[in-house]
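Worked example (supplementary).
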Amino acid sequence: MRTYSPFTRAGMLESVAYRANFFCFLIGEIMSCFIMFFVWKAVFMSTDSETFMGFTMEDMVVYLFITFLTGYLTYSDGTYAIATEIRDGSIAMRMIKPCSFDMCFLFQELGNKIINVLCIFAPLVLGVEAYRWIITGACQFDVVHFLLYVVSLVLAYLISFYFNVSYGFMAFYLKNLWGADILKEVIINFLSGATIPLAFMPKALASVLNFLPFSSLSYTPVMIYMGMYSGAEIALRMTMQVFWLCVMILISKVIWNHAVKRLCSQGG
Amino acid sequence: MKRMLRLHRIFVAQYMKNLMEYKVDFLTGAVSFLLGQVIQIAFLGIIFSQIPNLIGWEFNEILFIYGFSLLPKGIDHLLFDNLWSVGYFIVRKGDFDKYLTRPINSLFYVIAEKFCVDAFGELAIGLILVVYSVIQLKLTITWYMIPLFIVAVVFATLIYTSIKIATAAIAFWTKASGHITHMFYMTNDFSKYPTTIYNKFVRTFITYIIPFAFTAFYPASYFLTGENPLFCIGGTVVASVLLFIVSVWIWNRGIKAYESAGS
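After joint prediction of all chains, the assembly is encoded as:
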């Protein structure tokens, strides 16, 4: 732990240094939530039914903003950071240090995440809960579901981290990852239910996606927050998260051991 | 003007050579973008399978507006993408000196240097959606519609470009402004849907403050309904010309205030 805490500190300082960028980005990104909010409002105005495929208007709002929050907090920059280091050769500098490669990255990013959590987690959750309170006339906040959500969120972040590390290692073979990185974003957003809620997809497709690792990234924590899962289902989903986390760690170790042998540094 | 066009061709040729080095990478990027748009449209399809129309707009009309919005966005992306780099790193790294020491206009040089071929993804999807929805809606096309359509797209593009010029120029004072460009640029997504779905504040904001509503919904609604040509097409022209004048003024002020950064 002592070895890695300086990395966390560096990560925190880094995000504080660029705080103006951070807030501008946040405003730009959260705008799409508000667009979808208005779209859903129009959808519910255009239909006589109180629900849309089983979701009420406030369900949809909670889904939108909590999915945004979950996506923001589980986002991992590993692919880009690792691909850059491989391309410019600075990865060699990391390899001669007496610490584990992925742990360095993890603790550096944790510093970043601590700042993120402080800045946006509380305001967004409070905003969503205030909205629900006003619309339904009663406080909907459920402490148990909230705590389970936090645990599930941490698991989702770790899965995302190891997945991105493995993906970044592909730069050992491909050298340039710009296109592959965009492809990854698009596919993950679709498979994880972040673009289209899995409940809206055809039954067969939804049940397949539910068993892939990607639903663990966003859909599982969000559904837990919304109280859509029963106790048994929560247990099943979180076990699957743990399972996929172990698989991802294993994959990253295997690729690392294989790739390191054929590493050919481009300068640095 | 002729000299500028010739220079532009040379720049584009140089840039294409650069790009060909990473062919596969570039293709993956373009395909991913297409895929992302297809998923978005599928989502709209799912929504419309449950409702007859979206407060009076039917699915094909929404597709037309959505497709229209991608055309100016795509053209701007194709030709003027380098403005992003000014705000993100060119000024901060001190590389902007290069643009000032050549015997051509700095703004033109920045713009001509890069030619973003991946924008063809946006343009293709936009065109397909526009053509498909026009056929589905059985819109009658009169002869003057086509020049009006071209005028609308060209001036709508100018709105995008002007916003990028103005926000990129902030970097001349602050050294970096990419995140500010990003914040303003993201507002364009509001224009993909009818402004009637928004509340009054948002509607006023995207009509009069950052006039992105003129890049898609207003001109598109004229072609769909034939109503309000003066406001819908004329407004696009006026808004974009005003915005362009202001942004070039900011750029020129910025050049005067510019002090080289870095080593």
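Two points are worth noting when inspecting this output. Residues 229-257 of chain B form the longest helix (29 residues). Chain B touches chain A through 42 residues (CB under 8 Å).
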